[in-house]
Amino acid sequence: MPELESMIEQKLIEQLVYGDSQWTYRPDLKTEEDLWANFRYILEQNNKERLDGEPLTDTEFEQVKNQLQFSSFYKAGEWLVGENGKVQVHVQRDTKRLHLVVMNHEHIAGGSSVYEVINQYSALKTEEDGRNRRFDVTLMINGLPMIHIELKNKQHSYMDGFWQIKKYIGEGKFTGIFSAVQMFVISNGVNTKYFSAASDTELNEKFISGWLDQDNNPVSDYIEFAKSVLSIPEAHEMIARYTVLDEDAKRLILLRPYQIHAIEAIREASKTGKSGYVWHTTGSGKTLTSYKATRNLLMDIPSLDKTIFLIDRKDLDTQTTMAFQAYANNDLIDVNETDNVNDLKRKLKSEDRQVIVTTIQKLQRLITKRLQEGTPEYNKIKNLRIAFVVDECHRAVTPGTKRELERFFGKSLWYGFTGTPRFSENPYPKMGDLPRTTDELYGERLHRYTIQNAIHDNAVLGFQVEHNGPKTMSDETDSKLYDNEAHMLKVLDVILNKSYHKLGFQNGKGKTYEALLTTSSIPLAQKYYELLTKVKEGNTPLRIDEKIRQVLPDFPKFAITYSVTENEEGSQVNQQKMQKSLDDYNNMFGTKFDLAQIQSYNGNLNKRLARKDPKFKRRHEQLDLVIVVDRLLTGFDAPCMSTMFIDRQPMGPHDLIQAFSRTNRIFDKNKTYGQIVTFQAPKLFKESVDNAVKLYSAGGTNDSILAEWDEVEKAFRTALKALRIAAGAPTAIPGMSLAEKKVFAKIFQTFDRLFAQLKSFSNYSDKLLEEYDITEEEYEDYVAHYKNVIEEIKREKEEGNDGGEDEEETSDLDSEYELMAYSNTKIDYEYIINLIQNIVSPGEDEEDISPEERQQQIDEVKQYIEELRNGNPKMADIMSNLVSEIEVDADRYKGHSILNIVETTKQKYIENRISDFCEKWYAEPDDVMYAAMHYRNDEIPNEGVIKATIDYTCYKANAEKAVPKFKYYKMCMDELKEVLDTEIKPLINPL
Known about the structure:
The chain has about 1000 residues and is of the alpha/beta class.
């Protein structure tokens, strides 16, 4: 028998308060009124002197409560940063303004900090949502809920806790005192995860993280997780030290365990004066980790005068400094970027303890050209105790430069971050006695998190690789094979017509992915730009497939970019061609860049590609393809980038993995691999890729990291055979036992996953289905029956039936699995909801947009709604009415969850329609509602129950023109089917 949730809850609380723990269990706190009273008491106790011994009046406490009504979890996070580590509220008492400390982050595990555990808190119904809810376990610091935990028993997936939290947020339950929550934990006892607080529309299951120990072993049991993460000081540190505010995306980020272990390892090394390096695979958030490490060093090590975050000049026009600044803007430590060498000198001379962000070039120029030996300023700067943190340490600092800097700054510590260390297999070129490997250059490796670790933990995706270059060539390096228009048109044909799934066209407009095309030189990149322009204008034999144009009529939207230094190296012809591409970009997006503003252009293009700003989530602001040489191949983070097209010779292992890793960021359910397509030297490329992956997975196998056509196609054939054995044809499924259906569902999920992967290769075409002896229509029939089976399995779970012995065979069946090969390019209603949400709750940088721009946003939403109307007029009506109301009074909806409003409107419509039906036919509303919620494939699941409970006698006595009894049952069921098909099903399944 599975353990009861109440027992799991009790054991968790016992663990939290066990022994000399600082957590105190408060069974008396059950309502919001209780929590406010408790918070008020703690606030008064911690501020007796500031209050002059006089407790807060009710009016004064109302001032406090008003300051703690946060419009978003991000806003609460901004407030929790505090001033000099002190989180405050302000009260006006007569003529005095009182500054009361709510929380002091210097008092972790001591001082004024009070740690309390509550459970079964009652979140009462609101005007918008008429349901009461009970929360499982909540952890409070100084009376404020900071960490909320939802528990399930082993019979349920931990993901049920995720969906429950998402629902509660949408219902407005995390408001008032609960609006300050920063972290959620979900568990079914054996599998425990955590994630940062976000709105219901922003919560993404892809960003759920498990816990790992220092050696990257998973800690999944809820009791062990509580010991590792939820004890004090760890839980307070998660909130105070390991939460980051991303100002660009306006979201909270909770560091993953490997990031925290790396930061702690640096802290421990610094205490003993040791330098070292961190090997964290590219794509795992190194810039974020290095930011927190730089910032925490200054906070933790009082003997340090400064910490310096060092980057290379080439990174000035990448995201590194922008990301660093986005994290730092809300921090309590001063983070200062240097404008020039004199500014750097001034900041180094100042007495302020601060984090300085600067380039290696400025630092070199300072010590070699701007400081005179023997002067006071020379001696002051030379004797500073500095910790250098170097992001992408092999690109930013060469061995020679590092030696030069170390000799000058004799009291320095050095911490390098790299996703691609230099080993004896790929060292720096030999130059005298300079270090050649990362170990020699920085010292001991302090923490390791390889690409294999990251893929296993779902921190990054694996790679799917295709080598499409000419086969059977004696010399694969001969440039004449590739430097011609025929070859380039073949490349563009793959990009434009054979990348439907690679570029996410199945997601629909506004949710497709992006790609980079990299070439070996600026002239070649420009040739591609000119040729692609001709293709789009219809001036070449290559045509864009109608299937592509149906989804994105304006495809491809493309641009070209070089780094500042690449552009400076270009000829006058390059400059002229670059101006033409800037003009195209300006016309496409309404910008005004010229050659003098190349750095600003690059910055704008970066943001457009990253799509973190809601503005760039709209289709008319998006790019599909960017042509590059080396720019963006390192240090660039765009989760919606899925594919790297490489038309150049193989790079070295370090550069290959760096380039590949632009594509494998976690994004959405359909992005399952980083896609790599090469067009030159297929044998050499395969060898280079295999060697690079082996090197950077610490000697591990390639199996979990690389996927290629031959192995995927073979696995697909095997999965299809297994599917045919489980269910020879879709029509066989309804007659199966539930145990057989569970086996079918598990096998079908494997088949679907491989079918989707197969479709994403450029050498896949629908014609291959004849060879496999399955049609797209047959697959869709399997899908329809699969959905019915999943409903049956869920129903069995809800009714609490034990699956018995067959449960072991299907224990890893995912009842929340979302089909991946099922093509559905209809407009996504959740995408429309996000667009509407951005209109009523814009980001800070969009609050001042003109009425014309706001109307443009509304018109775009209306256009999407009309596209939705083609397939779902009922859903379109609801959204159209909402947008009309917003046009009249947008403030009415400001700060509200649009998703919740739409869901509530849908539910009310369904309830009213069912009520009308029941009044007409004298049916039981609960029975008809059950039918509505479980209606699939024209089958009413409880038709017999409805027929048995409808009341013909009452119907006959009250109906104006009652039909005979022999017609009554059939007419009732026919009308119910029509109502379900035309009015209710489109609202329950809006896609």
